[in-house]
Amino acid sequence: MDLAPSPDHICDELTALGLSADASSRRRTEYAYDASNYRLPPLVVVFPRSDDEVAAVAAYCHRNRLTLTARGGGTGMGGNAIGAGVILDFSRYMNQVLTVDAEAHTAVAQAGIVLTALQGEVRGATGGSLTFAPDPSSQSRATLGGAIANDACGNHSVRHGRTTDHVESLNLVTAEGLLLTATRTGLIATDPTDVAAARRAAEISRGLNELTAAHLGAIRTEMERIPRQVSGYHLGKLLPENGFDVARALVGTEGTCAIVVSATVRLVPSATRPLLLCLGYRNVVDAARDVPTLLEFAPSAIEGIDERIVATMRARRGDDSIAGLPAGNAWLYVDLDEESVGTPETAALELLDKLRANGRLVDGRTVPDPEQRVSLWRIREDGAGLSSRLVDPDDVAPEEGGHGGSYESWPGWEDSAVAPENLAEYLESFEQLLDQHGLTGVMYGHFGAGCMHVRITFDLRSDEGRATMRRFCTEAAKLVVAHGGSLSGEHGDGRSRSEFLPIMYSPEIIGAFGDFKKIWDPTGILNPGSIVDPDRIDDNLALADVPARLWKTTFDLGTPGLADGGKPGLDPFVHAVQGCIGVGRCRSASGGVMCPSYRATGDEKDSTRGRARVLQEMVRTAPDIKAGWRDTDSREALDLCLSCKACSTDCPVGVDMATYKSEFFSNYYQGRLRPLSHYSLGWMPAWLKAAAPLAPLINRSLSGPLARVAARAGGLDPRRTMPAFSTRKQVRASMSGLRTDPSADTVLFVDSFTKAFRPQVAAATAGVLGSAGRTISCESDNCCGLTWISTGQLGRAKKVLERTATALDDGTDRPIVVPEPSCAAALRKDLPELVHTDAAKRVAARVRSFATEVGHLLDSGWRPPVPLPAEVTVQTHCHEYATFGPNTQAAVLRRLGATTVHQADGCCGVAGNFGFEKGHYDVSMGVSEQALAPALRSHADHTPVLTDGFSCAMAVQHLAATDATVPDVQSVHLAELLDPASTAAIESVTEHD
């Protein structure tokens, strides 16, 4: 009996064909998941660069009878972007817009281009007049190929329909490796001189014509009955009255029939005057009943969310994140524009009057402010992630026997659709079905198109829970069909719903689906398990069969639950790393900060999602816990994590990869020799105390010929500019007036780095607080432990923090103001998670970053003694962004009088020790190019550059010293800008030192 070829053997053969292929265990893990409930490790992942390379892979798989699955952003929720054979990732290289024809209103783009990138390039090429309409919530990382595969729609589908409605032609690779082009009227060889391709196109065309003729009646009566009928194959497009539209018949086939390599798509006019109308209702059923009234006004969007999503957003990101929402327990977002009935403003007023007359509206308001509009739309766009780990403030706390105010929900029945006029009745019946099975559904979606996204509290970890899911989904399929609806409205059937297609369609149509696939893919190698001969919905579930083991951690990640018989249940570390559900916001190229390493490399392994998947595989497959903590795949995946903590706030689920990295490193290096940088940088606070007397000597060494030798000896990159140590004279000049004072009303915590490198910041902070009438007690002899935390030396970090908590827990509620934002974040978040005492919690609750404290000062009526410049550039420290709020610094600057705030929205690239360490320099510089370096290049003379974080200041200093395109700027701390007298005094001392 012949043995199946190994992944390495297949990879070697594909590499020999000139292809970029990877069969490493880490890579296979990253691509074993998408955004669904499923896990299916592939044999090999290939990153094609051209149509010919795709054809070569298909031909190889066809010869060797290997299955082949095309993949874009991996954001599909149906399990249709994973496969057990070869995976083709189009997003890495085949991601270009090839042409834009403004006159014809068309564009040609490769399958791997991200939708927002496509839209941006189209707007750029047409002066903003045109765009590509489909805009699913995942558009910032979903690709064109994925949108075509699933027939994605998006928030504005009320106006613009599905991807089907925008496809003009598709360039394909067949299962045999031939290049064909599907048009609105047929199928041809992409290259007319390719005889084999022309022969195959004719063969497929004959088969499709015969199929259509044999099933005319069934196709006409069962297909295309409602706007969002995405389930199954779009056989109705082949009807004579539809012109034998092969291109659009292939949309929604989920890669099971052919591989789309590029597409010609139709463009639509961009809205020039969009106005968001927010409507509040008692519940989603009431909201759905008003949809017919809304449709009378021709809005471009009618989207809905329920109260659980909003509560989670508020708990994760603060009240500002939901500012503008009217009163209610369920909300509709209605976009009105120049194509609506009347002007947007007039239509909004008339619509509100009609809705009030209907008697269901609780509250409604327009949202003219652009920033608030973006913020509110983000709640809807993050619905899938926010609803997966819900925060419910009304839940019972754990100490009272409850679930701790949070619970999980999962896809599986998240995409059903009915006619919009039937939505309210369907939702009423659906909620009754949930109650019958003891389940909770979190609802959001495209109300105007009748498509509901519902994530449900399935228990996918137990046999009983999986049986409940099967029973529920079976009955839900029958229910949506009874209401004249579709199993899927835009996500496709995949592994989640394909099994239930016989409930929706007649045996004749199910047979026609099988024949349709066989015409295209006779040997069945393309994305098996979806639509035809499907897997069962409970096969290959990612949460099934994960060993119940306790992974002891230093961080407090929660209390283990209890399984049957009182035995330990779900481990907190396992629960934490399983938080990633694959929605892939960390793969976005813009918006927020996450994930800077992915934005620099474009490699899945360097995304938050990729790292989380590798950790999930570790807890699943490790032979024992000790071996798991020594997992080399996890170590490799975590290497380029900057520990910026942006994912803890930007990720809709709140994945905190910096914490997981620290915990893993703590265990991985236990009893092992660490990298040199873990000693030189990780222990820096311990030896900084001795640096001041030697500062002149150290500074000469770091700027002279010994600098490179010293850097290499410490495990650092010699190309990185090293900071200048403050002399004893400078430290004394800055700190001499600062003393410990138990009677003072404010504690100023001066961290090791501020004291050693920027003591003038401490003086400036004290000056600002003093100008507000505050009395200061200075604490400069303790440490936040951050360098030990970031290098995973948690035993030492915990001891340091225990001492700090004891020193700061003085029995008062005095605010603790920390000028260094990374230190403030460590004391606020890491302290109570590492030191499990009431004292640690009390101290953490008192900690404020300097920008946060300035906000409190402004609230009390204080005004700065000198006016702030009208224009400033600010690099917000990632830890402040994540812990104290993304807009904290910018909001304070505007309140201080800055009318123009240029925000470098991204990580600076230094990120504590990361940018200094050997092996990280190139990625660090790539990260700086995402926001900081462009901001500095466009920097106007005399405009201050604010860098409250020491790392950020070092990034600016290095760019100014090494990049000729960056002006010679000196960044300052906000405290220095508000206390110029202090700055002048320190500068004078520096000049004469």
3D architecture notes:
This protein is an alpha/beta fold. The chain has 46 helices and 27 strands. The strands form 7 sheets. Strands 5-6-11-8-9-10 form a 6-stranded antiparallel β-sheet. A 6-stranded antiparallel β-sheet has the order 16-13-15-14-19-20, with helices on both faces. A hairpin with a 2-residue loop joins strand 9 and strand 10. The protein is globular, with a radius of gyration of 29 Å. Mean pLDDT is 93; it is low at 396-404 and 989-993.
How are the SSEs ordered, and which strands pair?
Layout: H1 7-16, E1 21-22, H2 25-30, E2 44-46, H3 51-64, E3 68-71, E4 86-89, E5 97-101, E6 106-110, H4 115-125, E7 130-131, H5 144-150, H6 157-160, E8 167-173, E9 179-183, E10 186-189, H7 195-214, H8 216-222, H9 246-250, E11 259-266, E12 268-269, E13 275-281, H10 284-289, H11 291-295, E14 301-306, H12 307-317, E15 330-336, H13 344-358, E16 361-367, H14 370-381, H15 383-386, E17 389-391, E18 406-408, H16 423-436, E19 441-446, E20 451-456, H17 463-482, H18 494-497, H19 501-504, H20 507-520, H21 572-577, H22 596-601, H23 608-621, H24 625-629, H25 632-638, H26 647-650, H27 657-668, H28 676-680, H29 684-688, H30 695-703, H31 707-713, H32 728-735, E21 746-749, H33 752-757, H34 759-771, E22 776-779, H35 786-790, H36 794-808, E23 816-818, H37 821-834, H38 838-846, E24 847-849, H39 850-859, E25 871-874, H40 878-884, H41 888-895, E26 900-903, H42 921-928, H43 932-937, E27 945-946, H44 950-962, H45 974-978, H46 980-992
Parallel strand pairs: 2-4, 3-4, 21-22, 21-23, 23-24, 25-26, 25-27
Antiparallel strand pairs: 1-2, 5-6, 6-11, 7-12, 8-9, 8-11, 9-10, 13-15, 13-16, 14-15, 14-19, 17-18, 19-20
Helix pairs in contact: 7-20, 16-17, 23-25, 32-34, 32-46, 34-46, 37-38, 37-40, 39-41
